[in-house]
Amino acid sequence: MRSLLIATIFFFAISPLQSQERPIPFPAKNNKDTSKSETLWDAAYWKDESGQFHKFGHVQTQLEHVVRDGKEIIRATRVYDLKMTRGRAVFTLDDKQITEESEGKLVRMEYTSSLSRIQKELTALPKGYLISTKTPTENYEDKIGDFPLVGFATELQILKEPRQLEDKFDYYYFEPTLNAAVKVLGKIAGKDRFKSPEGAILEWQRIDLQGAKIGGILPPSASIWVDPKTREIKQTMMEIPGIGYATLVRTTGDQAKAANGKLPDIQANTDIPLSQRVNQIHSLPQMSYRITLEFPIAPGDLLKPSHLHTIVQRQDNLSFELTVKALREPPKNAVKAEPAPPEYLNSCHYITSNDAEVIKLSNTASRGQVNNWDKAQAMESWLNKNFRFVSTKVMDTAAQVANDPNGLSGDCTEVAMLLAAMCRAQGIPSRTAIGVIYADNPKPHFAFHMWTEIYIQGTWLGLDATLGRGSVGPGHIKVTDASWEGERGQTPLMPVMQFIGKHPKIEVLKN
């Protein structure tokens, strides 16, 4: 489950362990196997729209026993080498994670993120776990509850245990992209037939896996096939927004490291095509759409309620009509409004409004402005002119962006977080909105997007430093929003992942 879920949100790598260890023989699987370690190789493939599979990398897992302070530890090292594109940029998920277990319980995990320059260490406490994190701009610690977390080695054993049809089981693992424990529910689903390269018909047992809801959203499900005789895992398949259907196939080291084929473009694979262009959509007062889904789901479970949305449910439960209205300025002659909750003013991990450089930028960008709306618009415009848009960063914090010696750069997520932080530094309540935006280069489509919302006179108004238009129009379809308070992972992105994962079709109706 974790092998592919990690690719849906974030990309992590890990530094080597620093402790002193000495290897001892790996437990024999049979009378002949007395090796000290076991290495498993998986070739990674993705499935395009035509149904063709293309290799885009491999995963290596090594299991071994070590002794530390007289205690036997099972250590599993998993190394990812997955290549993808994002527009014209090619990047590698070169994640390396190490889990250490004692008596079937996770006692330690180390990893780093090469893209976001984050280092983490998970350590077992008498009750619960301590998560220590280092970034270029801050160090912090979090704690999670006393979950029965398992590492890679125990997870493999759980999946390989003999079971009967319809049997159910569950386990917990730590998901670094979410900074949280995730419960996985498993079910024995029967047997499927496969054809070997030699033409033989193979019958493997399928195990269906479903992670429990995260932030109220179900993550993508996965299926694993095992040989019913040897109980060896043969392949794993999971649908990943941005990649499509990804499959790990157990193979030899040479085959796993063979040349890759066509690489998945995570940007193109998440775009929602439109059949027509809409001229000047971001300047229009409103726009109506028909959204059609592959599977029935209530609009309220898909889109967070918004004062700018009007939804009409259709009878088939597979489609609904959505009208999005533009709000260009604060309400006039508004009655005294309730103040925004503190979470929209507090500095937090991603929206680091107390950072000295963020404060400096906010003062520079809003200089000469008096009221909050004028300040916010000025900061949006300033960022649009002074921010360099690149696709090589992944969810850097506002402080990381502001303190980058190479200048302000990133994509929509970085500039939205930075604008929110600059607004909070000026005492303006803010949050980020997450959804999709209309674009027509080269063809009309909706694409994943993040922008900023500020609270003025009891109303939330949108600003988008990516466009720099001074307001947000009906070309933005909002799925959710987040203050990011107390958030170290990517849980707030789950609703838009669900939206895109439902493979919606969007039809423009009228303005």
Textual characterization of the structure:
This protein has 511 residues and is α+β, with helices and mostly antiparallel strands. It has 2 domains: 2-21 and 37-269; 273-510, Roll (C8orf32 fold). Helices cover 15% and strands 41% of the residues. The protein is built from 9 helices and 27 strands. The protein has helices spanning 2-9, 152-160, 253-256, 299-302, 356-366, 372-386, 398-402, 412-425, 494-501; strands at residues 22-24, 37-47, 53-68, 71-86, 89-93, 96-102, 105-113, 118-124, 129-134, 139-144, 168-175, 180-195, 201-211, 222-226, 233-240, 244-251, 272-273, 286-292, 309-313, 319-325, 388-389, 409-410, 430-439, 445-456, 459-463, 476-482, 505-510. The strands form 4 sheets. The protein has a 16-stranded antiparallel β-sheet that branches. A hairpin with a 6-residue loop joins β14 and β15. α5 (356-366) crosses α8. The two termini are 43 Å apart. Residues 9-35 have low confidence and may be disordered. Residues 406-467 form the Transglutaminase-like domain. This is Transglutaminase family protein. InterPro entries: Papain-like_cys_pep_sf (IPR038765), Transglutaminase-like (IPR002931).
Compact summary:
This protein is α+β, with helices and mostly antiparallel strands and 511 residues long. It contains nine helices and 27 strands.
Task: Give the number of helices.
Answer: 9
Count of extended strands: 27
Which structural class is indicated by helix and strand composition? alpha+beta
User: How many domains in all?
Assistant: 2
Fraction of helical residues: 10-25%
Distance between the termini: 43 Å
* Largest sheet features: 16 strands, antiparallel
* Global Rg: 24 Å
Instruction: Work out the strand percent.
Output: 35-45%
Shape: globular
* Arithmetic mean of pLDDT: 86
Low-pLDDT stretches: 9-35
